[in-house]
């Protein structure tokens, strides 16, 4: 049995310790906001936070999450009003939406570490999150808007 803290709730999980965290989140816990894209750490669709760090849950063994705090898009803010989520809505960032949870989770770590990122900082931090719909410009604008809202 593996004990995980996900979005502040404790879950007892009956899974092989080598199971990817993503499978546990989606198939066992039922948190389907985190997406499966490539499965090989290339696209960023599956990014969640592990003790505040952005990790790719498709290649993270569930055993690594034991004793750490896992946060998924469902737990980023209790009310869905994190500055990034608000900026995403204000600027209508999503297209098909598939990559966007991973994008927001990566952006949240960036904004925590860098309150006022430049365009280059944003491009560097977000370069591992692929969007097949090409929403990159709106993503960058939304991160800048969220940074401003965080300041104010
Ligand atoms: S699904 Fe994990 S990086 Fe693509
Ligand atoms: S919005 Fe469609 S993949 Fe990014």
Question: Beta fraction of the residues?
Answer: 5-15%
> What is the CA–CA distance across the termini?
45 Å
* Morphology: globular
Q: Looking across the biggest beta sheet, what order are the strands in?
A: 2-1-5-3-4
The SS-based structural class is alpha+beta
SSE order, one letter for each helix or strand: EEHEEHEHHHH
Number of strands: 5
Percentage of residues in helical conformation = 25-40%
What does the average pLDDT come to? 97
Report the bound ligands by name, code or SMILES. FE2/S2 (inorganic) cluster
| Rg calculated over all Cα atoms | 15 Å
- Biggest sheet record: 5 strands, mixed
Q: How many alpha or pi helices? A: 6
> Runs with pLDDT <50, length 5+?
none
Report on the structure:
The protein is of the alpha+beta class and 152 residues long. 38% of the residues lie in helices and 14% in strands. The protein is built from 6 helices and 5 strands; from the N terminus they run ββαββαβαααα. It has a 5-stranded mixed β-sheet with strand order 2-1-5-3-4, sandwiched between helices. A hairpin with a 2-residue loop joins strand 3 and strand 4. Helix 3 packs across helix 6. The radius of gyration is 15 Å and the shape is globular. The site of one FE2/S2 (inorganic) cluster (FES) has 12 residues, from loops.
């Amino acid at each position: 049995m593996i004990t995980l803290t996900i979005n502040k709730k404790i879950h007892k999980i009956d899974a092989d310790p080598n199971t990817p965290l993503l499978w546990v989140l989606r198939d066992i816990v039922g948190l389907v906001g985190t997406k499966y894209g490539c499965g090989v750490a290339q696209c960023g669709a599956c990014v969640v936070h592990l003790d505040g760090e952005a990790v790719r849950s498709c290649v993270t063994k569930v055993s690594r999450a034991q004793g750490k705090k896992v946060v998924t898009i469902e737990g980023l803010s209790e009310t869905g009003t994190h500055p990034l989520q608000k900026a995403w809505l204000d600027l209508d960032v999503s297209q098909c939406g598939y990559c966007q949870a991973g994008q927001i989770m990566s952006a949240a770590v960036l904004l925590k570490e860098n309150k006022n990122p430049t365009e280059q900082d944003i491009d560097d931090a977000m370069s591992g999150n692929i969007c097949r719909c090409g929403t990159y410009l709106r993503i960058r604008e939304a991160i800048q808007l969220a940074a401003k809202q965080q300041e104010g």
